[in-house]
Amino acid sequence: MAEGDSELETHDIYLAAYLRLAACNLKRRRRQGPRVYFVFTNPAGPIGELREGFYSGKATVKAHEYSQAIIAMKQLCFDLD
């Protein structure tokens, strides 16, 4: 995972789904071998804070919206081929 103050790249589909729900912009995606990487920007501030909130368990989202976001991110993986 590469991270800057304004951009974050991840292959973690669950983090990617959370970032979509947190109103981050999906800037690009790329495939490297079997993995798909998502690159996000956060127009509201440092994206690293969102990542920390996700992994620390402090971030909250609605369960149904999160499950739908996971499905959408998986579809983006298949659309890349």
Q: How many individual β-strands?
A: 4
What are the low-pLDDT stretches, counting only 5+ consecutive residues below 50? Answer: none
User: If you compute it from the alpha carbons, what radius of gyration comes out, rounded to the nearest whole angstrom?
Assistant: 12 Å
Structural class: alpha+beta
Mean pLDDT: 91
- The helix content, as a percent range, equals 40-55%
The side-by-side strand order for the widest beta sheet comes to 1-2-4-3
SSE ordering: EEHEEHH
* Shape by Cα distribution: globular
Q: What share of residues are in beta strands? A: 25-35%
Number of helices: 3
Distance between the termini: 22 Å
Tally of discrete structural domains: 1
> Which sheet architecture does the biggest sheet show?
4 strands, antiparallel
Describe the protein:
With 81 residues, this protein is an alpha+beta fold. The chain has helices spanning 13-21, 47-56, 63-79, and strands at residues 2-3, 7-10, 25-32, 35-41. It has one domain. It is built from three helices and four strands. A four-stranded antiparallel β-sheet has the order 1-2-4-3, with helices on one face. Strand 3 and strand 4 form a beta hairpin.
